[in-house]
């Protein structure tokens, strides 16, 4: 086997064969193939559409989470931020029926960004570990929503039609939700791969101290990362409200687990510095397809969570294996020099 | 990170170490005193029983969690282990096993769940955060597979009654006995034995601990097994308390436990913290919740307080350290100028 590191002329096709994402693509393909053979309806237009719509919200949140995890942090508050944003936007739209969709999206993004900014400030300037900060704000943001909403909820019939239709409307044959998710995942992947700020985030995740010493503007990047994660969770809140129509204070409770699961299954290492955003997007897709495949295969739905758990463990075992192999090949290369 | 200058090392560190623990204990006592004066029915023995029952699961799981966090690791699968054992308890009961068999079996199954965590973390060297997020989903998933969304409720009354009952004259709840017994054992192990000291050493610097002859991997492995077994026990107690075995029992409890442990002054990076602080943290959270409920404030409002306290528990000591460091540096500069 040729060591990964000394392969000089990089052929894109060859590189893809060695990526961690290939494993997810293969798993996804195998799953879809198997399910389709036992029930061809699984690949019907409606089924594909449902799967993609269900993935969209998770993928948007997984994008923000992936970027945060790549910098060796974590954002557990995303589920609560989603709830906050969903309830804010739903209340706003039911009070002002005429507001266009774009306003809802901007407000959702803004609410999330502010929540994310608080996380970032506490992590960076308060020197409080991200796990502690976002666990704390998970409670706080959720508590604020409950305090505000009480037992009330916004029902679908109180929301303007154009807001609810957004979740089902298409643009060039693709649902808006999917389009937004694709844009978010694609854009973030591109920035993380090809732009300076993206590479800086990987550097920060690989070694926070080294990144600081190398003159990377760690503070700015870190704040930006948490703002991004918050804003995307806010955006997910808008999509959630539009898709489900009924929003109460508990919207998005426990979502953080699914989001982290998607990111980890997607090959982003929890210790930062490696993994890709589109991998996390694939992770989100895989988790969604699994749950719908279980329904199609008439397997007890209760297996779903156990399978997700097993997948997470499998994914980190695979990451570990890859890391060990890379370390070995690096050592071999050094021995030749 | 501000290191104190070598001439005065030791004492300021000691003082800083004690600050948050002491503060949280004082705050807890204060809340208890104020609540019993201000809040109607807070100080009654009936309410005391309810409070003890409420804090039981969090406190019991917080004991091994403190050990684990002191070594710099984490276990997020605790509540799912609880759910799994609760589910299995119902399943065994439906399959006509005797309750005297079921209880030790459930504790054993909890320990086995801990063995899997411990093996993945120490045997394969995987990060505990990721592993236990995985087993959080896995164990809860298995709990659902075992029992689905049904519930088992017909447990024998002499057991369910014991858990919710009180001793003798009715002022001391029965469950206080296992709580105190376990808390004392864990407290002695952590603060008065070589094992306890080795946990702090592992948390402060695992590599140095390893070179000092501490069997780091083995120690951590057993911590997860103990944590699993305690969760199994809590699963049993939880099921008996509500006299209902359900797959979603204790869902989300892991966050409350971690919050209480960190609130009690244990550092998420390991190597720091004390059990009295953690117990105070648990009591504080439960007492606040209880008092607010008696005052008809929604329990969810407490989430804001919990979250804020959690962040402050790390933020405040950091601010104090920074301010003290700045102050010390200025004093050094002044004395140098003189």
Automatic annotation (TrEMBL), chain A:
Main location: membrane
Compartments, record wording: Cell membrane
Xref: Pfam families: BPD_transp_2
Residues that span the membrane, as ranges: 21-39, 51-69, 76-93, 99-118, 130-149, 173-192, 222-242, 254-271, 278-297, 303-323
Membrane topology according to the record: Multi-pass membrane protein
Keywords associated with the record: Cell inner membrane, Cell membrane, Membrane, Transmembrane, Transmembrane helix, Transport
Superkingdom per UniProt: Bacteria
InterPro entries: ABC_transp_permease
Oligomer and partners: The complex is composed of two ATP-binding proteins (LsrA), two transmembrane proteins (LsrC and LsrD) and a solute-binding protein (LsrB).
Function: Part of the ABC transporter complex LsrABCD involved in autoinducer 2 (AI-2) import. Probably responsible for the translocation of the substrate across the membrane.
PANTHER family: ABC TRANSPORTER PERMEASE PROTEIN YPHD-RELATED-RELATED (PTHR32196), AUTOINDUCER 2 IMPORT SYSTEM PERMEASE PROTEIN LSRC (PTHR32196:SF29)
Protein name: Autoinducer 2 import system permease protein LsrC
Automatic annotation (TrEMBL), chain B:
Cellular localisation: Cell membrane
TM region(s), chain numbering: 20-39, 51-70, 105-126, 175-200, 221-240, 252-270, 275-292, 304-323
Entry keyword annotation includes Transmembrane: yes
Keywords, comma-separated and alphabetical: Cell inner membrane, Cell membrane, Membrane, Transmembrane, Transmembrane helix, Transport
Membrane topology value: Multi-pass membrane protein
UniProt name for this protein: Autoinducer 2 import system permease protein LsrD
Originating species: Paractinoplanes globisporus
């Amino acid at each position: 086997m040729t060591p990964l590191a000394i392969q000089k002329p990089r052929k894109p096709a060859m590189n893809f064969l060695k990526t961690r994402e290939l494993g997810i693509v293969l798993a996804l393909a195998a799953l879809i193939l198997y399910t389709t053979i036992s029930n061809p309806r699984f690949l019907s237009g409606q089924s594909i559409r449902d799967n993609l719509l269900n993935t969209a919200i998770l993928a948007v949140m997984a994008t923000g989470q992936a970027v945060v995890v790549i910098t060796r942090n974590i954002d557990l508050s995303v589920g609560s931020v989603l709830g906050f944003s969903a309830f804010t936007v739903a209340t706003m739209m039911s009070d002002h029926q005429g507001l266009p969709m774009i306003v809802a999206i901007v407000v959702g993004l803004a609410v999330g960004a502010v929540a994310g900014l608080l996380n970032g400030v506490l992590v960076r300037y308060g020197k409080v570990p991200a796990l502690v900060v976002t666990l704390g704000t998970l409670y706080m943001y959720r508590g604020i929503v409950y305090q505000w909403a009480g037992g009330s909820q916004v029902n679908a019939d109180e929301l303007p039609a154009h807001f609810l239709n957004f979740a089902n409307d298409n643009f060039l044959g693709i649902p808006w939700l999917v389009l937004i998710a694709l844009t978010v995942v694609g854009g973030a992947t591109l920035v993380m791969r090809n732009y300076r700020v993206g590479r800086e985030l990987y550097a920060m995740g690989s070694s926070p101290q080294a990144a600081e010493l190398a003159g990377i503007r760690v503070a700015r990047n870190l704040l930006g990362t948490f703002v991004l994660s918050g804003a995307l969770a806010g955006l997910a809140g808008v999509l959630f409200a539009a898709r489900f129509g009924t929003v109460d204070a508990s919207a998005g409770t426990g979502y953080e687990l699914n989001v982290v699961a998607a990111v980890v299954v997607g090959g982003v290492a929890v210790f930062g510095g490696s993994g890709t955003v589109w991998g996390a997007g694939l992770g989100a897709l895989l988790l969604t397809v699994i749950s719908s495949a279980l329904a199609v295969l008439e397997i007890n739905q209760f297996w779903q969570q156990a399978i997700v758990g097993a997948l997470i463990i499998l994914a980190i075992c695979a990451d570990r294996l890859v890391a060990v192999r890379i370390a070995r090949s690096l050592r071999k290369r050094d021995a030749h020099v | 990170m501000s290191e104190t200058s070598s001439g005065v090392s030791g004492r300021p560190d000691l003082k800083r170490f004690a600050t948050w623990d002491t503060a949280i204990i004082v705050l807890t006592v204060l809340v208890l005193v104020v609540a019993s004066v201000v809040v109607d029915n807070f100080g009654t023995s009936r309410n005391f029983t309810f409070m003890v029952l409420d804090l039981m699961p969090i406190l019991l799981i917080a004991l091994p969690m403190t050990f684990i966090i002191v070594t710099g690791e984490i276990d997020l699968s605790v509540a799912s282990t609880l759910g799994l054992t609760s589910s299995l308890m119902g399943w065994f009961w439906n399959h006509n096993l005797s309750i005297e068999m079921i209880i030790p079996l459930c504790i054993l199954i909890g320990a086995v769940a801990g063995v899997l965590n411990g093996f993945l973390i120490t045997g394969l060297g995987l990060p505990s955060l990721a592993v236990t997020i995985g087993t959080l989903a896995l164990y809860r998933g298995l709990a659902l597979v075992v029992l689905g969304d049904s519930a088992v409720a017909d447990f024998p009354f002499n057991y369910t009654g014991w858990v919710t009952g009180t001793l003798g004259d009715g002022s001391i709840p029965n469950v206080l006995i296992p709580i105190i017994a376990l808390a004392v054992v864990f407290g002695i192990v952590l603060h008065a034995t070589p094992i306890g000291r080795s946990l702090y050493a592992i948390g402060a610097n695992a590599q140095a601990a390893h070179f000092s002859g501490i069997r780091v991997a083995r120690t951590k492995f057993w911590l997860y097994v103990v944590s699993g077994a305690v969760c199994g026990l809590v699963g049993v107690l939880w099921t008996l308390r509500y006299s209902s075995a359900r797959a979603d029992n204790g869902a989300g409890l892991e966050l409350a436990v971690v919050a209480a442990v960190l609130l009690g002054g244990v550092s998420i990076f390991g190597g720091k913290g004390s059990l009295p602080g953690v117990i105070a943290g648990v009591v504080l959270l439960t007492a606040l919740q209880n008092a607010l409920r008696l005052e008809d404030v929604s329990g969810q409002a407490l989430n804001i307080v919990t979250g804020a306290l959690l962040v402050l528990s790390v933020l405040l000591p950091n601010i104090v350290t920074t301010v003290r460091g700045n102050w010390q540096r200025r004093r050094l500069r002044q004395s140098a100028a003189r």
